[in-house]
Amino acid sequence: METKPLKLTFSGFKFLVLFFFLGITLTSFSQTGFKNPVIPGFYPDPSVCRVNDDYYLVNSSFEYFPGVPVFHSRDLVNWEQIGYCLTRDSQLPLKKCWASGGIYAPTIRYHEGKFYMVTTNVSGGGNFYVTATDPAGEWSEPVWVKQGGGIDPTLFWDENGKSYFLSNTGIHNDGSNRDGIHLSEIDIKTGKLTSEPVCIWNGTGGRYPESPHLYQKDGYYYLMIAEGGTEYGHKVTIARSRYIYGPYDACPFNPILTQINRDTQNSPIQGSGHADLIQANEGSWWIVFLAFHPQNGQHHLTGRETYLAPVSWPENGWPSVNGSGTVSVDMNCKTLPLKPFAKKPVRDDFSTSKPSFDWNYLRNPARENYVFNVQKSKLILKGSAVTINDADSPTFLGRRQDQISFQSTTLLNFAPSNANEEAGFTALMNERYHLDLVKTKGKLILRYRLGEIRHVEKEVSVNEKTVYLRIESTPEFYSFSYSLDGKDFKALGKVNTNLISTETAGGFTGVFLGLFASGNGKASQTPAEFEWFDYAGK
Ligand code: 6LW
User: Fold this and answer.
1) What is the pTM of this model?
2) Pocket lined around ligand 1, Cβ cut-off 6 Å
3) Which domains does the chain have, with CATH numbers?
4) How many beta carbons lie within 10 A of that of residue 451, not counting itself?
């Protein structure tokens, strides 16, 4: 067959030019819509900064180690974890830290070529900051801020380059003990406050005025805070002043963000608050904030998560969040050009020499009790005297339950000959609230720890060394099953999710799915080998 060379006619050329520009317009300007939360699971108190086209976000981490996860994005919608700020015991002393103690809300800022992350270790030294030139790490040793008390610190540099430190402290500058946002100057090299903290605003009357962030725009200082507490009454308010020390005038339509109103009382998103504003590279404004997703009535288990909403902020005007001051799961707004990351695999086959960023320890881990055996592709846990009922560091490695419905399975090789030794798989809110599938000498046990209640739901005799353990959840129930061949799973029991929710257990964290081992009072002789771990949201 005769083939003709392809000739580009003038009208063909016009079409090509048209397609080219259409393509550019579609890919490099706005795209429509995204889903909240943008970072699902226990990732609360988000703070964000931008360097050119790159955005970096951090979250609080409480008793978990490493501390303060760092995420990267190029569109504010898709986030990928690139590391942690606090990876060394010297940066993150968590010894004997109580559940939901440790690291409270952080702020991340970029100033003159350096990243700063400032936060509070409420059970280990108070306010401090660390710095890095690469946000993926390593971060510096802590610079401690010498201020008695205070949480939710922020650093701020004004246009003339002065450094400021803000936090919420209960100590008011007239000596009374009243919550308010305090501001002082700081020597950024030493962490020494060079002026007395002064209370500049205590909000619009909601309890716990906290999480201050300061911005400079159109000749004003804008001070944005959270009020109402981090539960269902949470909200974001803002005030402004021509002078950094005030007086601050409250925005006439505060709160600028809340889910507490009549029209949002049945929303799947509740508790929106604790926010940070960011201006994108092309000029648009956005807000990141925490909120949570109740299930099974007014109960949430997946923690306070990271959400995103667009902000319109006219010159000399007030910022307006999403037009309505509320948010939804399906966000019908223009976004930056979307740059998604690859989906995470369902299986972790433990073929790496250290855990992926998904995995966390409880408090400062005893490193000798964790072996990442790359050759055999196994995670080997050695039980210590400490148990998962202790506010301590048991041999435990967990990942966040970041979906309300999921299925998660692990393959365990463990046949101890001593009755005190155990290893297993747990859904854990904290050391006082957890649901465990435990292998002991000759037995598999399903047991629940619910505050002062310790209940054994089921015991079956299992002498085999190898057992598959499975935890699944729906909004209403956790279900537990096991298998000896990986195909036929036998149900052991199910329990209501609300029994270990944040509303029941208290605290600021979310459920972890954890692999653990313990010698219950003395070191175990028998290591527990985990071959792989699967987790899939439904
Ligand atoms: C945090 C405070 C808050 O420091 O809860 O929701 C505290 N906001 O600002 C712990 O996350």
Assistant:
1) 0.93
2) 44-45, 60, 104-105, 151-152, 210-211, 226, 230, 273-274, 290, 508
3) 35-334 (2.115.10.20), 347-537 (2.60.120.200)
4) 12
